[in-house]
Amino acid sequence: MTWQVAGLGRKIHQDQLESGLPDDLYQEFHQLSEWARTLPAKFGPRVRVRLVDAASIEGFFKSLFGRFRRYPAFTVSGRRYVGSDFSRVDALISSAVAARAAGDASQRIEQTHERSVRGERSVSRPRSDC
Known about the structure:
Blueprint: H1 2-5, H2 8-19, H3 23-43, H4 57-66, E1 73-76, E2 79-82, H5 86-118
Antiparallel strand pairs: 1-2
């Protein structure tokens, strides 16, 4: 998972514990972390998780430009969701993955069609060195 590979999971969790967050924020963070850990099993390498602290400078600008006023907030391929119903985020991710796969397939079909219109073959011909 992205957080663990970068070593962020432990550091963020430790920082969160040391900061003495109120119980409700601690529970929300814990639920978010648990859900994020399920993503690799659901979507494999097709999904990249990026955690941005809303209180950071980057988080401030992302909140400003994304017009987020409540948290947790998610952006999946330009589509937004605010809330803790992670099944809705899973649905956004699934549709984005499916759309990307369909787009990749249609792009391959278009390339194949263009080759056939131009008379190109996708099969390589043996090269003669004579």
